[in-house]
């Protein structure tokens, strides 16, 4: 009768480990799906992450980012122009140093010029 208790504990430990392994696999699947969607790949990637875990992520890291490369230059240019116009119409500012249009909330351009320095130069 004494052997009954350890066996029950072993079974509980095995069940708990299996549950954690399953949870980890599900999380890998969800993470894989998000990763591939963020790279611009459609479709169901859940099972790749679920079944192959870290190996699926290794494969994913070798795939390029498809999101922007797929758009032709003229579309990217149109998006950039529309963004600039939107920013300028809503309190954004054009950097005098490099010409980049910055959103209203941005105080310093990517090139290091501050909004105030840019405005002063303009006046
Ligand atoms: Zn600038």
- Share of residues in strands: under 5%
Class inferred from helices and paired strands? mainly alpha
Strand order of the largest sheet: 1-2
The number of distinct structural domains comes to: 2
Report on this structure.
With 123 residues, this protein is mainly alpha-helical. The chain has two domains: 4-62; 73-122, no CATH class. The protein is 62% helix and 3% strand. The chain has a two-stranded antiparallel sheet with strand order 1-2. A hairpin with a 6-residue loop joins strand 1 (93-94) and strand 2 (101-102). The chain starts with a helix and ends with a helix. The relative contact order is 0.07. The structure holds zinc ion.
Structure keywords:
123 residues, mainly alpha, 2 domains, elongated
Short structural summary:
The chain is mostly helical and 123 residues long. It is 62% helix and 3% strand. The chain folds into 2 domains: 4-62; 73-122, no CATH class.
């Amino acid at each position: 009768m004494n052997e009954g208790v350890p066996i029950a504990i072993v079974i509980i430990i095995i069940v708990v480990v299996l549950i954690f392994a399953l949870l980890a696999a599900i999380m890998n699947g969800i993470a894989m799906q998000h990763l591939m969607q963020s790279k611009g790949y459609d479709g169901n990637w859940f099972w790749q992450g679920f079944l192959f875990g870290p190996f699926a992520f290794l494969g994913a890291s070798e795939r390029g980012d498809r999101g922007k490369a797929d758009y032709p230059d003229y579309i990217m240019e149109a998006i950039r122009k529309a963004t600039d116009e939107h920013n300028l119409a809503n309190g954004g500012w054009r950097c005098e140093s490099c010409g980049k249009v910055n959103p209203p909330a941005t105080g310093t351009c990517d090139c290091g010029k501050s909004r105030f320095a840019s405005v002063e130069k303009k006046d």
